[in-house]
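dumping this here before i forget
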Amino acid sequence: MAQALLIAAFLMPNFTCIEALEDMTVCYILDGVLILYGVILTVLYCRLRMSSANKTPSNPPEKKPAEGGIYAVRLLSLMIKKTIKKADEGKVTT
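structure:
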């Protein structure tokens, strides 16, 4: 019985929607607000991206890789490369 009432209430026509379809100026106003909102967000995003690009230093400091886990192999390979580079320059002897 409750399901039948719920289905009947769902299928009842909603007359306020018919009134809203006749007056489309509200839709145009809302479209204008959304377009203006999109333009403002786009300008703010571009401004943020441009300002962060200007603040980055020319030589950013190297990030230290995490120790252990899957990054341990990467850390080991970086250490070997640095040691080989120093050995080629004559700074490290075996």
